[in-house]
Design brief:
heterodimer; A: alpha+beta; Aldehyde Ferredoxin Oxidoreductase,  A, domain 1; Aldehyde Ferredoxin Oxidoreductase Protein, subunit A, domain 2; 2 domains; B: alpha+beta; Alpha-Beta Plaits; two-stranded antiparallel ribbon
Chain lengths: ~600, ~240
Amino acid sequence: MSEAIFKLLEVDLTTGKSRVLDVTDKVKEYLGGSGLGSRLVWDLVPCGTNPLSPDNILHIGVGPITGLVGTKVSCSFLSPLTGWAGEATISGCLGDELMRANYNAGILIRGKASHPVYLFVFNDRVEIRDAADLWGQYLLKTENTLRQRLYAETGYEFHTLCIGPGGENLVKFANATSENVHSASNGGIGAVFGSKNLKAIAVKGTRTLPYANHRKVWELKKTYAMHPATMVQKRSEWGRYGANDGMRALLNYGGDSFKNGHSSWLPIADKSDGYIHELSYRVWTHGCPGCASPCFQPFFKNTSHGAFSGELRHGNTCGLCGNALMGFDEVEEINSLLEELGVDAENAYGLIAWAMDLYEHGIITRSDLGGVDLKWGDRDAVMEILKKIVYKEGHAPAALAEGWWHAMEVFGPESRWYAWCSGVNQSVARYEPRNKTHGLGLAYSTAHGGGNGLFDAATMCVFAAFPFFEIWGPPPEVARTFIAAAAGWEWSPQRMSDTIQRINYMSRALSMREGYHPDKNSFLPPRAFEEPVTNKYGVTSVLTREEWLEARKKYYVNALRLTEKGLLPEKELQRLGLEFVIPVLNPMGAVE
Amino acid sequence: MSQEVVKYACPYCDQELSDRNSLKQHIESAHPSIPIWGRELYPPPKGVAFIDADIMRCVGCGLCAEACSMHHFGVINKDFARIYIRNFLLPLPKAIVVTCCQCQAEERVCEKACPQSPPAIYFDEKTLHMVIDTNRCTGCLACRDACGTEAIRYNPELSDKPFVCDLCDKDNTGQRDPQCVKICPSTALYYHDRVERIRPLRDMMRKSADTKANLVSRRLYPLTRDSIAFPPWRP
């Protein structure tokens, strides 16, 4: 049987040159997406590089099965937020277009353009074009202008990945968005775009998909699209609420943070019922290419204070409502502004809630905030402060734009107690880390910001994947089945499991090389151990250090396959062919 | 936050009005021939076999196009398909699915536009779908340019002749079996192949995808584009 060949498009913005590389060997070891991306960053970016310098790279990664188990793109780079491995995943049509342009290992962007540009990729045609008129525009206008212009020029609909003012102004948690609503949020990918003077990437492909066996792939796709398990997911709450169908349960058992982590349930959780919002504002359902259980629910509402459109209470942003004491209504409206400015919602809400807390306790003043009276739950004040953060105006907003660590330095030691962030400069406002029902406190504290595991590397969509589990078994089995059809590689279960382990180790090794260490960074904020919270039914939860350290040890060994201290086991590294990282990481005490 | 002036726009003539009531009055007085909003009537196809595409149910997964190319050419390539998805930002993303509805003889502008005599693109009365006779077709693309739905496809990488939906009856034997309808997971596509219509016809208008998208956006938000997006904070 024939095997797929994996092509990577390399573009150097400094010289304006591009070439296509064959990276099939690397894809066999690391799959695509963040797996291949971490390895590329390890190889091409020297240790200690400033993430905002031209030496940083940006890998827009797809993989062998992109478009089959959900269409995702997983971008890898050195994160401006932490300085370590950065990974940001995005859904939408972009992955599909990259595959149809036959760049099935993605695009690698290096260097820095001398003036604002956008990257134009149309099958073989790769051009770096001037974007002077787009620079400074809000996201919606950028994307609409670009798409309409390219449609008029070529007669094809391009799909784009753009940054807004957040990325241009190098806000450390800026994101890049596609189709105006999908966003690659983590790690400050927008700032990497901005530092390279890259406003957007526009991709269109019209070729036959680069699969080894089309007939086999089609059989799998047909099985998925017509399977009862898919229909169950599509016709259940999923089809109406999207990725947020478990929100009510999550709120009730106290799985969400409220008031900057001072509570895990407040009456505001019951104030806005999602069902009413779905009936009132949802306009239609939209999905990514190839997905039979689409989860994207656009909303539109016309209120006395303006018209708003965006995504209805999708996953993360909905969970962030209570953090600054706002209801769904306010959050939906603020999200339409976030979508225009291009910053990560999780960090934006977390930082603003923290600023509200500091303002209440008198640690920062009104003049620090540029004259904004930042009261809990005040929508208009949040919108004002958000714009100030993005344009770095005023003492406190400019500090917040640099992320948690920098802002803590600026606001002084007494602000530290209120900071609701993990050891990787990331807000923990989305899920309540003290809650033992979902146990996401462990994931928050052991993460390092880089890509993790099979889903990011194979660019599988965790939302779309549930019917796949029903049909083909656990995630490695799903990946193995689809890789056999799409790439023509018949892998044993052991090889699949080794590949996943190698991907995890690679991104963790990259973070460790750049300064991440579990002893320093794998922690939750101190409040998680000292301030108890109560859920709706009066169940109080707080972590004890001993119990939590024990759980973390188990999580390291069983889930992440690291040593008990969270370090990389030397023997495993040698077995997986990663011995080249050992001499680099030994001085940092990262290998055991 | 500053109060923004939200204006209502007439979907038919772009005139801006201050509120809903004056919009209603304006439509009743200025466009008396237009029926109830959202129920624009178009002549339903009188054919017996055709694909009905409901654009409001379409989620844009593109499985229909993949099924089409797989059936006709044995590969997955949405640009080889006779049915296709166009994605719009209205500013919310909306997918519009486009395919041929095998319209009745009075319309059928493709057939009339063909310079060949008899036309190389014609409706086969026996097999009940459009056929392009590749032996006589010169590839002038007059039919493609004439079709208001933009349902006729052309891809120079594949062939120098255009191609159109044949209801998956490749060999023109009358064995119609549309694969796109079979795979569609959101039931946006429906194959009418009998005289009784068991599902009401939805979006059978012979209009381009742009027009359809415009109508969708105007039905759902009777606002001008500028008042939907946030105005630039900094001029």
